[in-house]
Amino acid sequence: MAQNKIAEYSRFIRPQNFDELMLLAEKAAGKRVRMVNSTAVGGGVAEILTRVVPLYNELGIKTKWDVIKGSGPFFGVTKTFHNALHGIKSDISTEMFKVFQETTAANLAEMSFDEDVVIVHDPQPAGLIAAKERSKAKWVWRCHIDTSHPQADVWDFLKGYIEKYDASVFSTPWFARKLAAPKYFIYPAIDPLAEKNRDLSAAEIETVARKYKLDRSRPIITQISRFDYLKDPLGVIEAYKLVKRHNDCQLVLAGGGATDDPEGGQVLNQVQEAAKNDPDIHILLLPPYADLEINALQRASTVIVQKSLREGFGLTVTEALWKAKPVVASAVGGITLQIIHNFTGLLVHSIEGTAYQIRYLINNPQAAKKMGEYGREHVREKFLITRKLRNYLALLIALDHPNEDIIQG
Ligand code: UDP
Known about the structure:
Elements: H1 15-28, E1 32-37, H2 44-58, E2 62-67, H3 72-85, H4 94-110, E3 117-121, E4 138-143, H5 152-162, E5 167-170, E6 183-185, H6 202-211, E7 220-224, H7 233-244, E8 250-255, H8 264-275, E9 281-285, H9 291-300, E10 303-306, H10 315-322, E11 327-330, H11 335-338, E12 346-348, H12 351-363, H13 365-382, H14 385-399
Helix pairs in contact: 1-14, 3-4, 6-9, 7-12, 10-13
The structure holds uridine-5'-diphosphate.
């Protein structure tokens, strides 16, 4: 797919924000950056990197993206760490720390870092910091998780690595923990020109709806997510069943897996079991890169749900808001930055609450439409990729001035 050019983004944002982006790019041009994460596809981090890496390069920042290698047991361990960092009580053994260290060592043996800045995403590759001694780079740890209430043993283990970084980036101050090195706060963002978010014609939406046998004359409630306990797909089915007592409707649970998430198959089996007697529940197992289909499914929906039990940021919410869809979502993690209750969407805390608010939106289409419109403007102001690019360019510049509060132009 051809990458969009930076100038094409100017139509979405204020001219002064676009000018600032170009100015920062001029100042940071020539820097070499390495991004490292743990999966090339599936989940929000891969989604973001796919879009920003070509744009950094166009802006003159020579950016490469690497994915660490890991076995099934390693990703089993890091998924458990992920849950524990989100505050889900998890059994941790010393064997797990050993698996983490061994995979880190194997990746270190294959990688060298000769860039100016290395940005390591999330806990899985965090141990690569051991290579700092043999590189001249500034090292940044980018945390996409809400680590405000982590399980202590996992955080303490990870902290041994994190403290060696020159800086860390969190999605919001609430997610961060006390660290000696500077912390930066950068919201994630979506790309309005990506296949997943671009405008679609009515015919494109209809084709996908038909492919999945959705009846567009009845309300469609949709949650797009990896099949993950923390996304609570079983809770969504419960909420849908409560709605269905009063409103004839359909439910779409659509998602694929991520190569760094080994729990997906098990969750999917449970979801299929819970849905098996209801032809109005559509469980769609999407392949990687089903961007056009996700876009169309979101646009074909009457209400978008994101009933996560824990959430980093929740890009699926951003995507839905950008499409001016009314959203019902749990008041967890970064979702509360995106949904201003009763204004850009509806926040919920329970299955019953989810059902109640879905019914409200189905029964009040005018209010739903208004919320969708406000949601889109909220995303335009805060959560588009151009704002994120500005923030990262400023970070690249700031890393060269570690002890200065004000950097002169
Ligand atoms: N996504 C996808 N295919 C799927 C499920 C999700 O492309 O089958 C995308 C989704 O559209 C969003 C991202 O993956 O862009 C998920 O990001 P989010 O922050 O919502 O959750 P995460 O998976 O990172 O926990």
